[in-house]
Amino acid sequence: EQKRVICASPSYLATRAPITKKEDIAQHDCIVGRPIGQRHSWLLKNAKGATESVDISARHEIADCEGILQSTLSGAGLAQLPVWLVKQYLDDGQLCPVLEKFNGEGAPISIVWLKTPYILPKIRVIIDEIIALSSRHPDIFEASL
């Protein structure tokens, strides 16, 4: 499971109202990756600690995570992105986490392959690397086999 974080650039946050509660998101530009015209929501924890889908208003819709990341870095708004993608930018201050206590469940990472008597070596390498990453970085990935 890949953990996600809502984040924005310091330049974006400097020009906007503070974000202290989930409801504040409605006053901000949000960057999403869903197909145009579909409902937009982020998974956030509620007051009881359960994860719920919270509708957001999308200002920008971009087709891939790299595009969302670049838009977020350039100050276009808030985005909910996988921690593995933004960790270096959070660590060096190019992005700031927002509403960390409300971060919801992560998104699953699934590996599916054709059932055969053996696993192809290239598939085995990918599986082993994901398992190794999850053990080295429990703050980014959570593995369950």
Please give a structural write-up.
The chain is α/β, with parallel strands linked by helices. Helix content is 27%, strand content 21%. It is built from four helices and seven strands, in the order βαββββαβαβα. The strands form two sheets. The protein has a five-stranded mixed beta sheet. The chain has a two-stranded antiparallel sheet with strand order 3-4. It starts with a strand and ends in a 9-residue tail after the last helix.
Task: Count the beta strands.
Answer: 7
Largest beta sheet: strand ordering: 5-2-6-1-7
| Overall pLDDT confidence | 84
| Overall helicity | 25-40%
β-strand amount: 15-25%
Uncertain residue segments: none
Largest sheet: 5 strands, mixed
| H/E series | EHEEEEHEHEH
Radius of gyration: 17 Å
